[in-house]
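Hey, sorry for the delay on this. The queue was backed up all week. Below are the sequences that define the complex (chains, strands and the ligand SMILES where applicable).
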Amino acid sequence: MIKVEGLTRVYGSYTAVDDVSFECQPGKVTGFLGPNGAGKTTTMRVMVGLTPPTKGTATIDGRLYSHLPNPGRHVGVLLDASAQHGGRTGREVLMLGAMTMGLPATRVDEMLEMVSLTPAESRRRTKNYSLGMKQRLGIAHALLGDPQVLILDEPANGLDPAGIRWMRGLLKSYADRGGTVLLSSHLLHEVELIADEMILIGNGRIVAQGDRRSLLANAGPEQSLVTALDNDALTKALAAKGLHPQVAGEGLRVDCPTVEVGRTAVENGIVLTDLRSGDGGLEELFLQLTADTQREGVVA
Ligand SMILES: Nc1ncnc2c1ncn2[C@@H]1O[C@H](COP(=O)(O)OP(=O)(O)O)[C@@H](O)[C@H]1O
Ligand SMILES: [Mg+2]
């Protein structure tokens, strides 16, 4: 497991990471969420010994990364998929990793297959790879040594929707087999479907952490998204209860739990074709908590 305690990193007079503490448990995917510049990459770089901390520690299975013998067998790391020697082929990158970790060459083929890089693609130089292909190669490299812990910085960047779904499945099953996953993202939607736990960071500080449910409990009012055969009738019925539904796409967005919308529909004999939780709460929470790190002004 991963343990970060009182981690601080100062650059000159600027505090990039400010007294950050959290843990990532085995069998769980932990999402590390925050806007650009929040301090995610710096935190992860400290974890794997690339940036010395100003204060505090980050340990993996109780040890500093630099104290791990053959670290690739313990921790799979993907920080910057583009940071590859462009003249090497994907296969060469993995082969070098396998040699460094003392793994058989067959492991390289297994990994290439797992990340769906074809034999022809694996023989191309990485400078000609798309960002999505580099991410796949990076994930293959991280998993090469069959580690128990994965640290991935924005691994979904550059992946197409099918690629993002593929990665979600891969990380979920890795965690289901007992692995510990920490993955960062600046996009809530990328993480919320997969993360068991979420850590929200803004301006170098942890602003909230917990599972979806406990985060939502602290979030703003619950929202529902609903579509009825007769949206006007539903609007009237909800308005009669003091609610103010707003048009959203083909349906309506209402500031109340889904059960309230369902009840109103039943009471008024209105047929619903779609009813789901709007999740506005979590997104609102994310934007509010990290507002002072956002580049775009957040309208309160
Ligand atoms: N080597 C460095 N020197 C000076 N400032 C840095 C350095 N690395 C990161 N920073 C600053 O620290 C802050 C956090 O950066 P980073 O950890 O990359 O954020 P994130 O990954 O969440 O986008 C940013 O303001 C960034 O400019
Ligand atoms: Mg970053």
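The chain has eleven helices and 13 strands.

I'll add it to the shared folder too.

S.
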